[in-house]
Amino acid sequence: MTFRLLAAGVVLASALGAVAASAEEFPSKPIRFVTPYPPGGATSLHAAIITTAAEPFFGQPMISIIRAGGGGVVGTTEVSKAEPDGHTVLFGDPTIISLRPQVEQLPFKADDFIPVARINYAPAVFVAGKNAPFSNLKEMTDYAKANPDKLVYSSDNVNGLTYVAFEMLKKETGTKMKGVEFGGGGPAITQLLGGNTMAYAGLPTVVGEHITSGAVKPICVADTQRWDGFKDVPTCTEAGAPIIWHFWLGALVPKGTPTDRVKRLSDGFGELVKDKGFLTLIGRINSRIDFQPHEEFAKTLEAERAALKALYVSLGKLPG
Amino acid sequence: MVIDSLLAGLAFLANPWTILAAGFGLVVGIVVGALPGLTATMAVAVLSPFTFFMDAAIGIPFLLGVYKAAIYAGSIPAITINTPGTAAAAATALDGHWLARRGQARKALEMSLYASVFGDLFATFVLIFAATALATVALRFGAPEFAALFLFSLTMIAAVSGGSMVKGLISAAIGVFIACIGLDPMSGYNRFTFGSVDLMGGVSLVPLLIGMFALSEILIRSESLATGAADAAIGRERLSWAEFRAVLPTLVRSSGIGAFIGALPGLGAEISCWIAYGVAKRRSKRPQEYGRGSLEGIAAAESGNNAVCPAALVPLLVFGIPGDTVTAILLGAFMAQGLTPGPMLFESHGATVYGLFAILLATNVMLLGFGLLAVRWLPRITLLPDGLLFPAVTILCFAGAYSVNSSLFDVFVMVAGGGAGYLMRKTGVPVPPLVIGLLLAPGLENSLRQTMMLSDNSLSIFVERPIAAGILALIALVVLGAAARNVTIPNLFRVQWRFK
C-alpha cells in the first residue's frame, strides 16, 4: 500500500516535474521556420536573415526550412498539421494566410493558425513601363477608360499581391484592364521592362531600383503615407484612388499552441528585430522592420481579412 | 576600357582569402553536385546565409565556386554510376556511362571536365564583354518568343528517341502528362491531384530522375548480377588531343547555345544541356554514335550546361533580374552585401563587379585543377564489385530523393520512377524524351497561355513579332530538313517497317 502510494507519488511528481520543465524550457529543441515558397524570393531572403540572426533570442537555433509547392499551399498545409508545440513556425504573408483560405478550397483555414509576430510590411507600388502612354494615375485611368481591356499589366498569380492590387484599382477607378499572370514578381517585372506589358504593381524591393534608374515610371504607393525611399511618388489616395494594400511577412504557429509559448516566441522576435546586425542586413535588402507583437498582429489580421472579404464580395467573387 | 577594368579587378585575386574561399566553394560544390539529390540550388540556398556576415570578397566567390562546381560535378555520378548528380547532367549520362561500362570512364570524365571548363570560360567572356548587349536581347523575349523557343526545344525529342520515333513520342507524352499534375499555373485549379496536398506541388523532377536513371539501372543490372564481373576493366584510357580537337566545333556551338539560354530568364542548365545535345547530334557527322559513347555528346551536354552558370549572371547583374532559382538566391546574397544588382551596380560598384569577373575566370582554372585531381581516382568507382556498389547507390537514391524537399512523398516518386524506368527499358521506350517533356511542358504551357491572353486568342501574334516568327521559321526548317533526309520516295513506303 505504502509502496503503491509512493510509486504513484513518484510518477505524479515526475509528471509535474516534466510539465514544469517543459514550461520553463521552451524552446527545448531547434525551431523549424518554414517558408512555403521557393528559394530566391523576398520571403526566403527574409527567412534566411531571420534564421541566421535568431539563435541568441530564442536560446535554440532556428532552422530555415524551404517547403515550396502549389503556390505556398504545400508548406502552409504542413505547418497547419504540425505538432502545436511552438517548434514549428510558418513564415506567412497576406495572400496565403488572409485571402486564399477565404476564396479558394484549400486544405487549411485561416483560423488554423495563431499569429505570433508581424516582422515587416511594405505597400504595393504601382508602376508603368518607360514607353507606356501614361505617367500618372489620372492619365492611366483616362487611358484605361478610353481603351477598355487594352491596358495590359503584368500580374503575378491569381489572388496574388499584384492581382489583388489591380483588382482594387479597377474597382476604385471603374476601369477595365487586362492582367497576364506570369507566376511571380520577377518574371512580371521582366515583362514590363521588356515592353511586353504596360504596368505592374509590386514591392519597393522589386521596383525601387528600376524607378531610380528610370526604367519604369512610378504611379502611386498603396499606403496611408508616402514611402521613405521615394518621397516624390504620391500615395494612391493622393492621386485619386483610395487604395491601401500591404504585403507583410510574419510568423504564425498552428492552432493549439499554448499561449505562453506564443508569447515567448513573440517576445523573441521582438528582441530580434532590435538587433543591430539583423537590422543592417534587413536594411541592405531594402526592407524595413515594422514589428507587431502577437495580440496586435491578431487584430491587424482580423481587419485585413474582413477588408479582403468585402473586396471579393463587391467584385462578385464571393457570396455576400 | 573593359580590359583596364578587368586588370583592376584582378587586384581582388591578390587576397588569399578570396582564393581560399573560392577553392573551398569548389570543393563543396563538387561534393554536392556529385551526390544525387543534393542540388546546386539547395547548396547555394543553405550556404548563402553564412556569407551574410562575411566580407563580400570572401562570401561571393565562395558561393560562385559552389554553383559552378555543382553543375560540373553532376556529371561525375552520371558517368560512373549512371545517376545524374543534378538534373543538368541527365544528358551526360547517356554517352558517359556507356563509355564507363566499357572501361573508358577516365576518358569520359576528362571530356566532361574539359567541356565544362570550356563552356564556363566561353560564357564568362560573353558575360564580361557582351553582358549589356545580350541582356537587351534577352529582355525582348516576351511570352510569344518563349512559346516559340519551347516549341523548338521539343524538336530535340527526335534526337534522343533512339531507334523508334513512336516510342520516343510515347515517352515524351508521358513526361508532358506528368508535368500537368499539380496546381494549374495560371488559375490555381487542381489537376490530377486527387485531393493530395503532396501532388498539388507537382511531381518533383529530381526524385523522378534519380528513380528513372539510377534505381532502374540497378534493377536492370541486378538481373545479370551473376555475370556482373564482365565490365571489370580498368578505366585508365585518357582523352587524346586529337579527340579533343575533333569536338572543338561542338564545344564552341554548345557553349554559345548555353550562354544564350543562360541569359534568358526561366530556362536554365537542365533544359540547355538537352538543346545543346540535340543540336550537336543534328549537326554531327556521326549521329549514330550518340547514346553509344559519343565523346561529342558528352562535350555538347557538359559545355551546354556549364555555359549557363556565368550567362545566368547577365540578366542578374545588368537588370537585377534573376534568371533561375540559383541566381535568385545569389541576388539575395549580393543584396545582403550591400551590392544590389541592377542598372546602378556597374556605376556604384564597378571595381567589385570586375573583381567578380576576375574571380569567375580564376575559379575556372581552379576547377580544372580540382577536376583533374578527382578524375585520376574516380574511375575506380566503376571497379567496385556490384554487390558493394548497388546497395550503396540504392541508399544514395533513397537519401537523395528525400533530401530534395525533405519529403517522404518524394521517396515514393523516386521508387515509382524506378519501376517505370525499368519497364520502359524492358520495352525499349527511351527515358530521355520523358525528361524533356517533363522539363519543357510547364514553360510551354505558361508562355503559350500568356501569349494567348496578350493577343486575345489570336495566333497571328507569332508572325507579327519578328523574333517569334524567326524561331517558328527555324522549326519549320528543322522539321522539313529532317523529313527531306529521311522520307525519300522509296522510304515513304518502307516507313511502317522501320519501327521496331
TrEMBL record, chain A:
Record's family?
Answer: Belongs to the UPF0065 (bug) family.
User: What InterPro entries does the record point to?
Assistant: BUG (IPR005064), Bug_dom1 (IPR042100)
The UniProt keyword set, sorted, is:
Signal
**Stored PANTHER family:** BLR1237 PROTEIN, TRICARBOXYLATE-BINDING PROTEIN
Q: What does the organism's lineage look like at the top?
A: Bacteria, Pseudomonadati, Pseudomonadota, Alphaproteobacteria, Rhodospirillales
Pfam families, alphabetized: TctC
Question: Protein name, please?
Answer: Tripartite tricarboxylate transporter substrate binding protein
Q: Where is the signal peptide?
A: 1-23
TrEMBL record, chain B:
Pfam families according to UniProt:
TctA
Give residue ranges for domain DUF112.
Answer: 19-436
The superkingdom listed in its UniProt entry is Bacteria
Membrane-crossing segments per the record: 37-64, 71-93, 113-139, 146-163, 169-187, 199-220, 257-280, 312-334, 354-375, 387-404, 467-488
Among InterPro entries, the record links this protein to:
DUF112_TM
Which keywords, in A-to-Z order, does the entry hold?
A: Membrane, Transmembrane, Transmembrane helix
- This protein is called C4-dicarboxylate ABC transporter permease
Species this protein is from: Azospirillum oleiclasticum
